[in-house]
């Protein structure tokens, strides 16, 4: 099955993709480095050299590259912070909707008066959850709140947005917007790497945060291994 994967820094050091062919795709929005094997392609949204922070990612080039390569179905894996006590670090979620009261335009409609209804398609998620459970426990139907990176949210911001959604991140709303505009189907998976700032009291412990991210990378790697098996059946 022809599938495009979009992921972040969790896969950069993974041996899983080390043997995949690396190629550069030139788009009208800039060049994008991708990894390919068979009917699959992988984009690291932050890039494969010096990682770009969330606000500096060339989202339009990334999504346009997938469209130019002929992909329709996209499976995205994002790192998120939890806005709910019952979603602790290490939890896998799938988001069905998002809040993106943003933060600079990320659109393909620069030269035409055109809009559209945004959203997350998740056309593959029911099938994936059915095949991934019980090895992986995935909380579905969650709401993603996008905030402007690279900084974390203030404690007061967290108190506001915890009523808006379940998890917070810095990238998925841009990607989902662009996929919908260009006709790609966006499927959401996300790993909870931390509780949002102040949600459980106190400040963000960045040493603990980086330790949690490192520990969760093993789970994300296993998830990708299983996804590749499923889409190769």
UniProtKB/TrEMBL annotation:
Please tell me whether the keyword Transferase is annotated for this protein.
yes
What's in the keyword line of the UniProt record? Glycosyltransferase, Transferase
Molecular function GO labels: S-methyl-5-thioadenosine phosphorylase activity
- CDD domains under this entry? MTAP_SsMTAPII_like_MTIP (cd09010)
| Name of protein | Purine phosphorylase
Q: Which GO terms describe its cellular component?
A: cytosol
Looking at the UniProt entry, the stretches that span the membrane are: none
Q: Which organism is it from?
A: Nibricoccus aquaticus
SUPFAM superfamilies, from UniProt? Purine and uridine phosphorylases (SSF53167)
InterPro entries annotated for this entry? Answer: MTAP (IPR010044), Nucleoside_phosphorylase_d (IPR000845), Nucleoside_phosphorylase_sf (IPR035994)
